[in-house]
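Supplementary Methods S3. Complex input for the IPE-bound model.
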Amino acid sequence: MTATLRYSDDGLVTQGLSRAQLPRHIAVIMDGNGRWAQSQGLPRVEGHRRGVKSVRNIVEECARLGIEQLTLYCLSSENWKRPRKELDFLMSLLEQYVIEERSDIMRQDLTFAMIGRRDGLSQGVLREVQKTVDCSRQNQGMRLCLAVNYGSRAEILDAVRALAREAASGRLVPEEISEDEISRHLYTAGMPDPDLLIRTAGEMRVSNFLLWQISYAELWVTEKCWPEFRTPDLFEALRDFAARDRRFGGLNG
Ligand code: IPE
Ligand code: IPE
Ligand code: MG
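Predicted complex, serialized as structure tokens:
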């Protein structure tokens, strides 16, 4: 098996990109699977199935670009409101993806992570995810992070509870709680904050995704639904990102 070929600097320039202007961490709200399926006269679940193709494409491209982390929103803690049949389908699709992707994750030298609450996930998903986390641990390339049963408010709540327990036991002085300390108690501890947040299917909202971490992320929304999102769309987002003036509250120039 051959390792994934990285884009050369010249290869990037022909795409209108430069390495120095790429985001370290891209997060994606992969939305519109159901609407895409509906537009094709297919059942909603076919949209999820087709969405896996987009995942494979974007993971490969981000790895080739040398992006440090790609975080994909796969299932929110609010998505449990959906019909049981759709949830069962999503769970088995995820398990199948993690099994089938393992060799590609190794070929592409990716590390694998999952964020979100474990409860409610099938035993199969938990087992296969753990296997992939374990076997990819020593890899050096991009971190692929799946947000599954993820809700940002639940994540912040879990962090607050952990901090409160430490304070109550005397191991932590409340006045010494810093922003970094809070970050260290989130599921994303040790990960860089996203620089670019992409959302497909047009909604101008963040749907409880990484609320703390996206404080200064650049937002990029496309009308395209996730199953039709491909390399040219990613490159368009990256070119737009490169043209943004990120001031972080300061002044430019
Ligand atoms: C995103 O697509 C995938 C998940 C939320 C699991 P949707 O299933 O939300 O598709 P739309 O938004 O209904 O079209
Ligand atoms: C966000 O999409 C969650 C995922 C993409 C996994 P939703 O379809 O759940 O978001 P809302 O309900 O339109 O805000
Ligand atoms: Mg949706």
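The mean pLDDT is 97. Residues 31 surround magnesium ion (ligand 3) (CB under 6 Å).
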